[in-house]
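Tip: read the tokens left to right.
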């Protein structure tokens, strides 16, 4: 092999290395900005008697390219809601199939059944993405609000 080809290989290797670093930086910035573009707005907070937990229902808004969603988390009573997805429930109105509630997403009602059981009620046409049935020993049941 000639010396020109060896120089070309080294130059190409350096270029590919720099390109990979730039792509990783751009991807990292995009991922970081996507996470920080979202905001949670609390709709309601319900204590679960006999436990150290509460249920927070909130609207999560991630900017103009996505609609509002209604989400719920069970967190410690002394904790504040973090800028994260809900840990027990996530739904949206499915492009108007379900009516919008107070936060822009579908209405979600919380009913405490006992210290180890809650019920979440939502419109039957809400598009549900996540509906956990248990969290930290607390049973979660689901029901419909009804057609309106």
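Filled-in amino acids:
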């Amino acid at each position: 092999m000639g010396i020109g080809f060896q120089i070309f290989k080294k130059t190409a290797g350096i270029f590919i290395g720099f390109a990979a670093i730039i792509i990783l930086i751009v991807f990292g910035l995009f991922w970081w900005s996507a996470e920080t573009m979202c905001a949670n707005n609390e709709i309601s907070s319900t204590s679960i008697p006999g436990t150290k937990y509460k249920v927070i229902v909130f609207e999560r808004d991630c900017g103009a390219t996505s609609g509002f969603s209604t989400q719920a988390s069970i967190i410690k009573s002394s904790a504040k809601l973090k800028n994260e997805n809900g840990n027990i429930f996530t739904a949206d109105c499915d492009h108007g199939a379900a009516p919008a509630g107070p936060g822009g997403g579908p209405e979600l009602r919380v009913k405490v059944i006992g210290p180890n059981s809650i019920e979440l009620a939502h419109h039957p046409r809400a598009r549900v993405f996540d509906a956990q049935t248990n969290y930290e020993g607390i049973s979660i049941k689901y029901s419909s609000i009804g057609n309106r």
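The mean pLDDT is 86. The beta strands are 39-47, 53-61, 69-76, 89-92, 108-114, 117-122, 127-131, 134-135, 138-144.
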